Amino acid sequence: MERTTPKVDTRNMTVRVTSALVFGVFFFSLLWFGDQSWAPPTYLAIMALASLMGMREMALMARARGFNPSLVAGVLLTWGLLAHFFLQSGSQDPLPLWLVLALGAMVIHFGALFFDQKLEEALPSQAITWLGALYLGLGLGFQQKIFMLQGTLPKTGSRLILALFIITWFGDSAAYFVGSYFGKHRLAPKVSPKKSWEGAFGNLGGNLLGAALMRATVCTEWTWVDVVALGLLLGTVGQLGDLVESTWKRSTGVKDSNVGGVSIPGHGGLLDRVDSLVFAAPALFAYLHFVHGFN
Prior knowledge:
This protein is mainly α. It has helices spanning 10-32, 39-63, 71-87, 97-115, 122-147, 156-182, 197-217, 224-252, 270-292; strands at residues 186-188, 192-196. Strands 1-2 form a two-stranded antiparallel sheet.
């Protein structure tokens, strides 16, 4: 059987690594100062910018198929969800989730009555607006919530966010190399022909390696049970999240999510970079909540 994925593109890999290093220096510098008072608002600003870029890509993909989701309404709801996670602290919830969703519904549906020029596509357009806002608002919002967690170790939230990214990125990198050299059995040919079962198992191996590295360095309170559980949990959920975003791209006939938007050199659009993290972040928080008692 022929390989389902090509050999490693060294030129593209150089671009990918270079842009990742530039981003990594900035991002990990922020995590280093995670216990400073200005760090949570700064992280919120980064998540707000990411949600704006992601919602724009979602709107552009939908418009390629003739739909007309509202970028403004989607971004406002996304920012409302981010604000909810930022302001919530213990029993204090000054901007409750029900209020954010209620206001978001009015903005999306009432706004379309006055500003949507393609009301014949109202149902799918408004549904896509909801989808994009909830997808980004919850996925990035849980990152914000994790970043602000406090535990027995200093900069607990920063450590956990670093673990989230390292575990996910180690998995992505392992999947790329293992799939490129050994991929023979297609994982989901109707969704992403280049993905293979070999790459998927390589992904899980990378996730476990990343989790073990985090236990040895920054998340020293983790047990080996945590390493295995989080490696497999985040790896599985992250890969499913990747496939979900691939179905959206295939349904709109685009290769990268940027579709005329801002492209990250060697990585495609922003949605292509956060698709695994958007699902992995809520999964990580669920594990921290039910297993370790974080709120």
